[in-house]
Write a structure and sequence with these properties.
- It is built from four helices and 14 strands.
- The chain is mainly beta.
- The chain has one domain.
- A ten-stranded antiparallel barrel has the order 4-6-7-8-9-10-11-12-13-14.
- A hairpin with a 3-residue loop joins strand 6 and strand 7.
- The N terminus is likely disordered.
Length: 263
């Protein structure tokens, strides 16, 4: 690293788990990777506005993240409601072929371990919300989600008995999940399973325009429940959680999701 690059890097305090190396920052235990994208001359006019307004700063940071395919947050995998659909044995069974609804998500992480005086999370709680579209077939279900700080797709398919697998991919990361249907009563349904995921977190660097990001891999438990208004109806409310452990920060990661629709 030359003297100029070293001086530039030294101006930004960084969390203990990252190791700076010129333009790239690579995390240790979790394989986190931070990439910095700097634009100076072209940004002289809008940088002051970005610095003064937290809302503009958040929106601009997440738009920049989409440009480099890093995204802002994971979405709720609504295709997982396939666990309560025909043709596999379950009573009551949902019958919707196409569904549309609203969804929101939030991830809780230990901010004090990630942030420094000059390096702040752009979306501190990984909040995102938007619309989802679900498509159900006899052997597989697909779901697409798009909205504010959210863009991705997921798929769920049957394995055996009451066991299913789902795959989620978005600009905010990915997740692989094995799910088991544990309960299905006239008004309530519940599932429990294991998952591994990789999620992206964006940062804003105060004092100089830049966007930074790091990836965290974690593994843990995935569960969700559904609510019906009547035994013969499809589900209308979906609530889920993911509780995992991220080795890079040696702390748990908790994601909460809530969705409304007719699935």
């Amino acid at each position: 690293m030359n003297d100029a690059a070293f001086a530039l890097v030294r101006t930004h305090a960084t969390p203990a788990f990252v190791d700076l190396d010129a333009d790239f920052v690579t995390g240790g235990l979790g394989g986190g990777r931070v990439t910095r994208h700097r634009e100076r001359a072209a940004m002289k006019r809008i940088v002051p506005l970005i610095r003064r307004s937290p809302i503009v700063r958040l929106v601009f940071t997440c738009l920049a993240s989409l440009v480099v395919l890093t995204g802002c947050a994971l979405h709720a995998p609504m295709s997982e409601t396939f666990l309560f659909h025909e043709p596999y044995p379950t009573r009551p069974a949902h019958t919707a072929d196409v569904t549309l609804g609203i969804t929101a998500t939030q991830t809780l992480v230990p901010r004090r371990l990630l942030e420094t005086r000059e390096l702040k999370l752009a979306n501190p709680f990984q909040r995102a919300g938007g619309l989802y579209l679900g498509l159900y077939h006899e052997e597989i279900a697909l779901s697409f989600s798009a909205g504010v700080l959210m863009l991705g797709a997921d798929a769920t398919f049957h394995l055996w008995g009451r066991n299913y697998a789902s795959v989620l991919a978005s600009f905010g990361g990915w997740r692989l999940t094995w799910l088991h249907r544990t309960m299905n009563t006239p008004y309530l349904g519940a599932t429990l399973g294991l998952a591994v995921q990789r999620e992206h977190f964006m940062f804003w660097c105060d004092g100089d325009f830049c966007t930074s990001g790091t990836w965290f891999t974690s593994a843990g438990v995935r569960a969700f429940g559904i609510l019906r208004t009547a035994p013969t109806d499809n589900g209308v409310l979906h609530g889920g959680l993911y509780l995992g452990y991220a080795p890079a920060i040696r702390r748990p990661v908790l994601q909460l999701t809530l969705s409304f629709g007719n699935f």
